[in-house]
Amino acid sequence: MFQVRIHGRGGQGVVSAAEMLSVAAFDEGRFAQAFPSFGSERMGAPVMAFCRIDTREIRSREPVMQPDALIIQDPTLLHQVDLFSGLAAGGFILINSRRSAEELGIAELAHGIGHDHLCTVPASDLALKHTGRSMPNAALLGGFAAITGQLHLDSVTKAIREKFPGKVGEANVAAAEAAYEHVMKERQSPAPHA
Amino acid sequence: MLKQTEGSHAIAEAVALCRPEVICAYPITPQTHIVEGLGEMVKDGSLTGCEFINVESEFAALSVAIGSSAAGARSYTATASQGILFMAEAVYNAAGLGLPIVMTIGNRAIGAPINIWNDHSDSMSMRDAGWIQLYAENNQEAADLHIQAFRLAEELSCPVMVCVDGFILTHAYERVDIPTQAQVDEYLPPFEPVQQLDCDDPVSIGAMVGPEAFFEVRYLQHYKQQRALELIPHFAEEFKNLFGRESGGLVRPYQCDDAETIVVALGSVNGTIKDVVDEMRAAGHRIGVLTLCSFRPFPLTAVRTALIKAKRVVVLEKSLAVGIGGVVSDGVRKALSGVVLRGYTVIAGLGGRAITGKSLRALFEKAERDELEMLSFLDLNWDVVERELERGRQQRRSGPTAENILRDLGPAGARIG
User: Fold this and answer.
1) Which residues of B touch A85 (CB under 8 A)?
2) Where are the strands (E) in A2-154, listed by range?
3) pLDDT digits (tens, 9 = 90+) for B38-91
4) Which CATH architecture fits A2-188?
5) Helix (H) or strand (E) holding B33
6) Can you tell me the ipTM of this complex?
7) Any CB–CB contact under 8 A between A69 and chain B?
8) Cβ B414–A46 below 8 Å, yes or no?
9) Which terminal Cβ of chain A has fewer Cβ within 10 Å, N or C?
């Protein structure tokens, strides 16, 4: 089983992101479960959503306490919420930010999980460029496919098109593809303090 | 068709396949997506022959359903939490009049304190109103139970609630096989009312009944539910033959055959429990779980048969009958009348408190050692409780409890789980 926890703020499409991940996994013939952990549903309040992916039926309904991957949609949560709680050994962290992990002050995390398991991607910028809005969720899913290798980019873009039909979907797919490329490049670059 | 979809949407599709003729709706979290989905289907023409009526309250929603059902229309509504309380009078009326309405409950806590999250307090508050109550374990079953519910309701002329855990199921995306219209048409015949407001053959429905007849009318509601004990497994069997999967029924035992410890629960928590049972079985523990799908009627015989060989029974409940403890455990104890075994009641998950596999494992192992109290509260934060009690001991005007506790806890958004 591969478990994902997505952190963001109300209005950033955190719940939709988890749903799209589950659709992409389903399209690849796997079992998937996505569900939200609603706070008080206010714009800007910290929000979490979860996705589990497995090759067999998923029965557990507990929140994802030990994620294999974390997607941080809003880096301002880094010092407010215990985001990395329970992260599995060898887990992945993908953060929506223009800054590097070093600049965000979390580079030491990379020592625990490996340089190529911790990436930042300017998902809001990419979303703004391609969609005209700074909603980072779809772009981050492209980044997720790149960093974890759990899903094909094609399945992710198919799920995005299903969620957002028409022009909006195509623009979000472009943002996801750009984020995918960004993360692939970042993973191939040498570790900063290697 | 197999698809990855939201629980609420799967339910809306299943209800639409039942060819409802009147849907009346008032929004309340967490059931809103269901009636929104149905509203969209009526508007875009994919659900025909159905009138979608926006009403001004939950009381009106069920009152309209009562009217339309009495007029001979297949009628559906959905609600949750304070919504079911607001329609309480109509809930009893629908059952008393014997109208086969189907209503989804997106299970949610009841205030105060106000809380939008899942537990079973809402449907439990109406457990004796005369409605049949079926609880879904996952979204496939949630969809399937609605199809069975219309069949059952109309066969008996008795309303049915399908109880679906709010957020945990209603807002969860998972794979659901949505049946075809032809399959549902084969399973569910057109609505043939046993009573109908008909201008060509006038009757009145809803007579004033004195001491000479009230008792008998009320007894006949009980009689219907006793008949449901036979019909529910029968319709589940027919469903299995036609749709190729098991859904519904009275109870579902899992790993119970040689179990010394059997857990009993309603709804989606059974999935988490089954994972823990598998884990414990692998470590040599003789444990199983009995999923109760039908809570009203309460399947006394089926529960007795499933539990009679166990050494101990742990009833895990998502509602608290304040002043006594469990609701489901009362029925389980009645089912086990005369049987000597250890019985434990565990209250869990109130107001959306996460029920984790880790906590369940520790709980079940404690039960195996017979170290559980008769009544216990899973993952209750005793420090917080004690601090609030101490405040009350220190000063008379200690202030409102919920606010005091929130202040003690700090920002909720900073926690996980």
Assistant:
1) 416
2) 2-9, 31-37, 46-54, 69-72, 92-96, 118-121
3) 999 999 999 999 999 999 999 999 999 999 999 999 999 999 999 999 999 999
4) 3-Layer(aba) Sandwich (3.40)
5) helix B32-43
6) 0.94
7) no
8) yes
9) C
Q: How far is A9 from chain B (nearest CA, A)?
A: 10
The answer to whether A32 contacts B175, with C-beta atoms less than 8 Å apart, is yes
State whether A23 and B271 contact (CB < 8 Å): no
Structure tokens at A130: 């391609």
Per-residue pLDDT, averaged over A34-54, amounts to 85
Domain-wise residue ranges, chain A? 2-188
Closest to A61 (Cβ–Cβ): which among B116, B268, B417?
Answer: B268
Query: What is the rounded CA–CA span in Å between residue B372 and residue A2?
Result: 34
Query: Is residue B406 classed as helix, strand or coil in its secondary structure?
Result: helix
Closest chain B residue to A17 measured between Cα atoms? B173
CA-CA distance, B236 to B245, in Å (whole number)?
A: 9
Whether residue A65 lies within 8 A of chain B, CB to CB, comes out as yes
Whether B397 has its CB under 8 Å from any CB of chain A: the answer is: no
Which residues have a Cβ under 8 Å from the Cβ of B316 and sit 6 or more positions away? B263, B264, B265, B269, B273, B346, B348, B360, B378
pLDDT in tens, B331-369: 999 999 999 999 999 999 999 999 999 999 999 999 999
| pLDDT over 60 at A40, yes or no | no
Q: Does domain B2-243 have CATH number 3.40.50.970?
A: yes
**A54 interfacial to chain B (CB closer than 8 Å):** no
pLDDT > 90? residue B266: yes
Fold match between domain B2-243 and domain B251-377: yes
User: In this complex, is the C-beta atom of A61 within 8 Å of any C-beta atom belonging to chain B?
Assistant: yes
**pLDDT of B414:** 53
CB contact under 8 A, A80 and B413: yes
Nearest chain B residue to A19 by CA: give it.
B173
Phi, psi of A110 (to 5 degrees): -65, -30
How far is the alpha carbon of B107 from chain A, nearest alpha carbon, in Å?
Answer: 15
Q: What's phi and psi for B161, nearest 5 deg?
A: -100, 130
Looking at domain B251-377, does it have CATH number 3.40.50.920? yes
Give me the residue spans of the domains in chain B. 2-243, 251-377, 389-414
Give the mutation candidate from A28, A62, A78 for the B interface (greatest B CB count, under 10 A).
A62
Q: In the predicted model, what is the mean pLDDT of residues B204-221?
A: 96
* pTM metric for this prediction: 0.96
B254 SS3 class: strand
